Amino acid sequence: MVEIRPISTQKSDLKKFVEFGIDMYKDSPYFVPPLVYDDVNTLTPTVNPAFDFCEAQSFMAFRNGEPVGRITAIINSVENSRCNSRSMRFGFVDFIDDPEVSEALFDAAAGWGRSKGMDSMVGPLGFTDMDHEGMLTEGFEEVGTMATIYNYPYYPMHMERMGFQKEAEWKEFFIKVPDAIPEKYKRIAEIVQKRNNLKVKKYASRKKIKADYGVALFELINEAYDNLYGYCPLTPKQIQYYIDMYLGILNLDLVTLVTDADDRLVAVGISIQSFSEALQKSRGRLFPFGWWHLLKALRGKSKAVDLLLIAVKPEYQNKGVNALLFADLIPYYIKHGFEHAESNPELADNSKVQDQWQYFDYRQHRSRCTWRKSI
Question: Whole-model pTM?
Answer without folding.
Answer: 0.93
